[in-house]
Amino acid sequence: SAKEENRSKKSLAWYQPLYEAAVAGDWESARRFLDIDSDTLTADISTVLMTALQVAIREGHSTPFVENLVDLMPIEALQLKNPESPIDETALGYAAIVGNVKAAEIILRKYPGMANTPDDYKRKPIYLAARYGHRDTLLYFLCHTEDSLFTGKLGVNVVKYSIKAGFYDVAIHLLERYPNLATYYEMPDTGSPLYVLAELPWIFPSGTRFRFWQRLIYAYSRTVTVAFWDILKQFVPCIKSVHDTKLRHMQTLQLVKFICKELIDIDYLKKAGSYLAPVFLAARSGIYEIVTECTQSIPEALWCCDAGVDKCKNTILHLAAKLAPVSQLNLVSGAALQMQRELQWFKEVEKHVQPTYKRSKNLEGETPRVIFSEEHKDLVKEGEKWMKDTSTACMVVATLVATVVFAAAFTVPGSNNDNGIPIFLRKDSFMIFVISDAVALFFSTASVLMFLSVLTLRYAEEDFLYSLPKRLIIGLTTLFISMTAMLIAFNAALSIVLGEKMSWIATPVALLSCVPMGLFAMLEFPLLVEMVLSTYGPSIFHKQSEVMV
């Protein structure tokens, strides 16, 4: 009613000085107000129905203010919560939500048992700290929560939210301390630690994209001492980012290995319930680390159907045939290499499944190969366009190189004598010119032919696995060699023409000639390296999963 609303407004106006004191951490002003009206200790003093203690905990400005308030409050007052408030938590629960460790310490110092007291939703403070992603608060509650609380769903939820928040070391600590949490299972299995890991493809090496220089740092960081890394991270932020990413990969792989190890020793029904949904989700998302570790520890995982997940009797090969999410595809450069990655993933899973599963049909009558073709038809078209556009652009450059060096072969520097013999035939720089010019001509011609073969290929699905990438690799390599040889021939010719008296000009010109090669290397070399590694590198299931720092 209007009368009650007016009284509520008066109440908020009355409590305004206390609210301002709580926000500012001004204990003297708050104390004077409390001397006048002691009932305000548990009164709702804000528009969102927060007490003075909750306001002070939220602001986090003054630890003495919180300490003085807690000293005045009995345990019953600290356990009060307002169901009408959007917070609806005790003071300790609210400290866990906002991540105020100091406030939690003050409350538990007076009433230690509150760390184990659940709220109306059966949530403990440690759960709230994990769910809202406050690392320091979570670590504090780990030391003040009874071990018995980590035997079931609460412990699993803390592990789950620790993983989601990126506290992988905390999750590892909890699983090592309470191994039963690794195999905890209930229907539906969408909240187990392994399932949560399968929901986050970007935290694994397979879901991370690096630039060329980042890949080098990532690969060779294990050979560098920890002390040296610490120094480098202080002065080079980008190195710190790569190092932190590698540490994250180490921890997530350790989590997967630990969980799979624990699954080996439990009964079959519980084991199947614990790994099926995560493995199939990982197969859909292309997280080969989870699929590899699970199938190595539990070989029957590859022989199971997905009936419990989508009710269509899909095998793991049916799921591997589906198009990967866009976030996963974008980890690879270009539609053609994306198609190659999809084929590699499908064929690797195909090698390991039960032979009859290669031709098995789901409830819709589709084999894995039919699903693959249907899901990837648009990617095949995009890959064809990408390949042709790249080859056309590179073929133009290769043709220009061939034209220039062919003409240079008949217009040698210094011209010829009356007998048609080059004047500088006996100079070393002339021989360098001749050899470099010949190399440039041969390799540029080979490059043109390679790019031409890419343009005339049939572009079937299987061509994206080896045939197309191989031709593009040869084309780019020969183009790179021909451009290098052309620039060497140019510098040799310049040295001959200028002679010894003008040799000082040759050095800056030679340095400038390195600019186009540097640009080409910077723009195209990472693509070439990526193609070589993806085409001729180790297979997906045999890549080194365990990363060492």
UniProtKB/TrEMBL annotation:
| Keyword line | Membrane, Transmembrane, Transmembrane helix
Q: Which InterPro entries match?
A: Ankyrin_rpt, Ankyrin_rpt-contain_sf, PGG_dom
**Top-rank taxon:** Eukaryota
The reply to whether Glycoprotein figures as a keyword in the UniProt entry is no
**Domain PGG residues, every copy:** 384-496
Q: Name one GO cellular component term.
A: membrane
Residue ranges of the TM segments: 391-410, 430-460, 472-498, 504-523
Keyword Transmembrane helix in record: yes
User: Can you name this protein?
Assistant: PGG domain-containing protein
